[in-house]
Amino acid sequence: MQASSALPDLEPTTPRNSRFTRLTLTLAGVIFTLATLIAGATVWLCLTEPVAVADAVGRGEWAATAKVVFALLLSGFEQIVRYL
Predict the structure, then answer these.
(1) Which range marks the domain in which residue 68 is found?
(2) Is residue 12 part of a domain?
(3) How far are the Cα atoms of 3, 22, 28, 38 from residue 45, in angstroms, in the given order?
(4) In this predicted model, what pLDDT tens digit does every residue of 12-50 receive, in sequence order?
(5) Average pLDDT over residues 66-77
(6) Residue 52 in 3-state DSSP?
(7) Helix axis angle, 62-83 to 15-48, nearest 10°
(8) Residue 72 and residue 44 in contact, taking contact as beta carbons nearer than 8 Å
(9) Cα 51 → chain centroid
(10) 71: Cα within 13 Å, side-chain hemisphere
(11) Four-residue CA torsion sign, 54, 60, 61, 65
């Protein structure tokens, strides 16, 4: 009598599956990092320029707000590069 296993038979990980998994996790990490940076820059902008943000949002000018957020991110990146 053979003992039945509760676990299904799994295929061994092939190099293709491993490469796909690494690519997926790397892409998810990059997306998460970018989303975190944009959210942080938006909060920083709301704290440092609340009137300008309120005016832009009130008028529906999302492009101007996005431009300032990306300029803030670029400035931070430039400062990091100068430091290194």
Answers:
(1) 32-83
(2) no
(3) 63, 34, 26, 10
(4) 666 667 888 888 889 999 999 989 988 888 888 888 888
(5) 83
(6) helix
(7) 110
(8) yes
(9) 27
(10) 7
(11) positive
